[in-house]
Predict the structure.
Amino acid sequence: MGIENRDDRTVWEDTEPEAGVTSSGEAAFSSDKEQADDAAPFARAAIALLRGVVFRDKDEALWQTVWKERVRLMDYFRVIGLQLYVDEADEYAYLRQDESSGLPRIMPRHPLGFSLSMMLVTLRKKLGEFDAARGDARLIVTRDDLELSLRPYFPPVTNETQFLMRVDRDIQQAVQMGFLEPVGAEAAYAVRPLLRSFVTAEWLRDFEARLKEYEAYGQQDGGEEAGK
C-alpha cells in the first residue's frame, strides 16, 4: 500500500480557459486536490516515522494521525520490511526493522560505547524500580545522579575532566535517541518510557552476561564499542 501519483492524471497549466470550455475540468482538478489533501496527513505521518519516534506530547495532531491510520501505516511499511510499533499507554510510535523479512536493512544499527551502554542500563533499572511504585509522575534524574551511578564502572585513575565530558556526551546522545527529555531545572531529565522498548529484558540478560567483558573494556579506556 503506498501513495503514488496516477500516470493518467490530467496535467493542468496556468492558462486562461478557452471559450466554451465546461466546468468538468475544474471539477476534476478539485477532486484531485481533495484527494491530495486527504492523503497529506498520512504522508506526513509516514515521513515523521521514517525520521524517528513520534511522541504524543510533542505533536498531538501527528500522534492522532498515526493512531487513526496505524493499520494502513503497518501495511504500508510492511512492504519494505519495517514494523510499526505503537504504544497506546505511553503514547509513542516508531519503526523497527523486521529481521525476518529478508530485505536489505533500512533502519541503521547504532553501536553503543561502553559508557553509554552503562548509562542506558542504569536508567532502565531506575525506571523499573520507579514503575513498581509510580503514580502518574515521571521519573526525573539529574546529571549528578547519573555521574554517581556511572562512576563505579570507571577506574579511579580516570581523568576527571574526561569522565565528566563523557557523561555529558552520553546524556546528550540519550536525549537525541529519545530516552531522556530535558525538563525544568538545569541538568534535570525525564526518563521516557521509550527506553523500555529498547532496553528489553533480553537486552539486559545479554548485557549482564557480558558485563565482565564490558568492565574490562572500561578498565582499559572506557571507550570500546558495544553493539545493541
Q: What stands out?
A: The first strand starts at residue 54 and ends at 55. The chain has nine helices and eight strands.
